[in-house]
Amino acid sequence: MLPFKRFRTRDGKIVDSVLGPEMRSTGEVMGIDKDFPTAFAKSQAAAYGGMPTSGTVFISVADADKRAVILPAHRLQQLGFNLVATEGTAEILSRNGIAVTVVAKYSETQEDGAQNIVDLINDGQIDIIVNTPSGGAARADGYEIRAAAVAADKALFTTMAVLGAAVSGMDAADEGFDVRSLQEYALDREAAL
């Protein structure tokens, strides 16, 4: 968990929230429990006050991640979330039976006045953002999307691994958490040995 809102460039823009491998393991909170999904949900509750349990999820992933996003997107739909995606991502989701609404990229000008994804995030219409970085022109779009997500204080997932953990954590969060001390976990471990 990093406070991206505090990090700005010299001209005042929020820095990109995509982390390199050396920073992905940096954090300020920890969740511990009987299984990974529950532990992950606890960490998110400690860091951000919990993950959204309803609303709208925006999905735009790199071509390399399009197959991997199908199962988490399907589960998000089962959990009752509405899905919106950019055209390429929406196409793969639709082909796999997932209901999704196409939304314009940041770089796409809407002659009819329709909002693009950054407008929707800024207006509070998006609750979770899934955006995996890709190259070329998509890089500028991705930066604007992630900057808007950070500024709006919305849940943002930039890798398929974290998205999978978050989706599994949503199920665990519905069941509630048991709070135990580290000493209790240590006693359980000693008893198991």
TrEMBL record:
Answer whether the UniProt record assigns the keyword Ion transport to this protein.
Answer: no
Q: What class of enzyme is it?
A: ligase
Q: Which Gene3D superfamilies match?
A: ATP-grasp fold, B domain, Methylglyoxal synthase-like domain
Q: What is its EC number?
A: 6.3.5.5
Q: Name one Pfam family in it.
A: MGS
Domain MGS-like, first and last residues per copy: 49-192
Keywords associated with the record: Amino-acid biosynthesis, Arginine biosynthesis, ATP-binding, Ligase, Nucleotide-binding
Task: Supply the PROSITE patterns for this chain.
Answer: MGS
* Name the UniProt record assigns to this protein: carbamoyl-phosphate synthase (glutamine-hydrolyzing)
Native species: Microbacterium murale
